[in-house]
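1st attempt posting a full record on here, be nice pls
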Amino acid sequence: MSALIYDMDEHILMVKNVKGYWEFPGGAVEKGEHLQQAVIREVREETGYVIKVNELHSVREILFQDNMHHALIFTEIIGER
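the predicted structure (as tokens):
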């Protein structure tokens, strides 16, 4: 789950992850959690922002070759902070 967060000037919020590269804030969905709940929690944990989800932006599929882990990444549009 990730969040595309931007302000009125269309500046996009990114976070630097532990591996040193920039990405949208987000993370894994916990057991029993809905997608919107997960992205709201992850954004709060990573940025301190409390957000409201506007709409689904995209779904991406990734296969991590090193450990054969398969993931679907849902990106939500947040809009103005």
